Amino acid sequence: KDVMLTIKFVDDKKQKRVKLDVNNKLETIETDKATFTRVINNKIEEGNNFIRIEPLQEGIGVVELRVEIV
């Protein structure tokens, strides 16, 4: 089974840049899509985990953040 992270942004058709931090494992997301999806199996641990999204530009809105086991 996979652990899937889905972030839904405001659908403004603009480029979005954010820093994604899952348990201190960082990556930069760049997309112009409204929905970003990524398997995060290698970033999570059994028990409690944390996710932080830091905008790298102004005007980024997150509508939904979802983590699912699929």
Key words describing this protein structure:
70 residues; mainly beta; 3-stranded antiparallel sheet; 56% strand
Would you give an account of this structure?
The chain is mainly β and 70 residues long. The chain contains no helices and 6 strands. The chain has a 3-stranded antiparallel beta sheet with strand order 4-1-6, with no helix packed on it. Strand 2 and strand 3 form a beta hairpin. The radius of gyration is 12 Å and the shape is globular. The mean pLDDT is 95.
- Helix/strand class: mainly beta
Mean pLDDT across residues: 95
Kindly report the spatial arrangement of strands forming the biggest sheet.
4-1-6
Helix content: under 10%
